[in-house]
Amino acid sequence: MTLGIMTALPVEAAAVLSVVQDVTGFADPHDQNAYQVGLLPSSDPDRPHTVAVLMMPRDGTRLAATCCTNMLRTFPNIRTVLMAGIAGGVPRPAEPDRHVRLGDIVVATEGLIDYGHVRETDTGAVLRGRQSGGTLANRLLRAAGQLRLTEEQTGRRPWEEWLDPDRHEQAGRYPRPPADTDVLRTGDQVIPHPLPPEPAPAPGMPQIHYGAIGSADVLMKSERRRDELAGQHPDLRAVEMEGSGIAASTAANERSWFMVRGVADYAATGKNDRWHRYASYTAAVYLRALLAATPPLAAPRALVSGRALPLVPEPEQQALDALLIDVPADVDLRAVWHAAVPDLPEPDREVFSTPGAVYHHLARYNARAGEPHPAFRFVDRLGRAMANSPTGRELRGWAAARAGLGHQAVDERDSPEDPATRAGKARPALVLRITVDGIDRTRCRITPFLQTTRGPWRPVPGPGEPVDVPRADLAAATAVLVGKAEEAWQDTADRADIEFVLPTALLNEAVQWYPGPEILGESKPIGIEYAVAVRSLERMRETRVHRAWGQRWRQLDRQPFTGRVFRGRGDPADLDDWATELISDDGYLVVVLSAPPGTEVGTGELRAALRAGVPIILWDQREPRPADGTQGLERLVAEPTGLLPENTRRIRIEAASDPAHFGRSVALLWDDADRPITERQADS
């Protein structure tokens, strides 16, 4: 089973089971729960979701947490627990776009609000209304967004066919009550319902609401308390009595959750059961449509399917936990995951909260024959990411000893490079393409592009429109665009990068020291808060060098890694021979310029490196380059090539408090051939 579905009432369970295929009973002698298991469609017609449906003996958050924990112990491959059933709606008749009516469907895309916690004061109890824990299932969030987009663009609502008794027989068993029974009152006064917003569903069909759902061990039957809670939480659409318990249980077991509710009453005095059956069924059919738009949540091949002994003895585990606490917060745990266990599915965001959480998540897996355990591979990779620190060396030694390899690496076949730089593994990024005006050379145009999430490289124009500014105002305009990008990234826990696509005339601009947006009264240089790199506008436009560029770039993935560094010689008379040697040996992946662009030698070496397709170029922005600059560049290129963006950021952080530090003048051209910004994209 890969999905669990929980309900609190018999009518809710019956409605869910009416849309599940191949239903059969299942019982575990060690579990007091009774389950019905079956299939629901996924976005892949050949791979349906396998689901376990549980009806709780009664409602309540505490019992929900207990039942959920038992379910996850009985079915250890369940990755997401869904809640389906009825809820009390939160009406807002003065706001038609957010007004909830009986029979409508509420989808908890904004999470849960645990309003059962109160603070006792001298004047009485005060609702704390805090956000509930747990992690929303990202796949289902994306599917809900796709259904919402389809509804708004085409008017197609796949759940409605299941509400038509002419198309599905069971719809006749869950009829919609007469419209005159949907009465909203304030006290004794009847409040008229506003017209639904466009695009509205057909008459007699439910409206879908996306927002937050309140959860507590409280049977809400008070208009005053309902409206008080609604005033505190503008996203609140409904209230119920199981969600916070299930969210807490899934969080403790490193799983995710999701919730769909049908509105059966208005959580006020005078509530009755008249709409229970229909509301239960609307939630069930929407849930079916949601899962039909969701890729199959296949169980990981290596996941332990039963109870297992600890991976290592307790004293060794305690020693590792102590080391993991010392891992710096800026280590990209997702990048380490993809380098260590690229064949395993990425877990939910909460797993990446700490190195310990990732390790213990992987400890639940089995190792393949002849390979080190995935958890050991993660620890080894984590140590590589901290190669120059004592903690990093201890982590690698711990992993090697557990894998029985003495002091060797857990897997020397793999490159230690950060997979976040590889094609298809892009982190969130803001790309600023800057061009110089063809007539007024003192003015520039900034065209922004945004990669909003980790995944395939698919930047979109924005945030905002291209802006034309004097060259002197580039820094201020950049700060505005970085602030807008942060607003777009607010729902991701990933690190983010900033890239400047620059013409050669601007490549030596100290963009890494541009100030970022003012946040809480303070602005920091962007090179401290982000991995900042520059890219070549001319090479991106010149398609005749893209083959050589891509060929060298992809050597970064070649095993074993054999890429080399080529250093400029600083002699204009030797430049032609130097360029010939560079272009004739495609093993050179990094060039260190002997002088910055803008000088005769620096520009000549730069153009030769771009022409040869060299993807990584480093230089000191000072002319002439002092001795500490030469030493600093050598220090950088002595470390693993794939870590250059993060290591460059690290030395800039060191330089922030030391004006004489060489890190203040290090420039990095990190030109990923698999992450283009095309002229068509720029023009759009």
TrEMBL record:
Residues 313-408 form the vWA-MoxR associated protein middle region domain. Pfam families: PNP_UDP_1 (PF01048), VMAP-C (PF20028), VMAP-M0 (PF19916). Residues 2-275 form the Nucleoside phosphorylase domain. Residues 440-673 form the vWA-MoxR associated protein C-terminal domain. GO terms for molecular function: catalytic activity. GO terms for biological process: nucleoside metabolic process. InterPro entries: NLR-like, Nucleoside_phosphorylase_d, Nucleoside_phosphorylase_sf, VMAP-M0, VMAP_C. This is Uncharacterized protein.
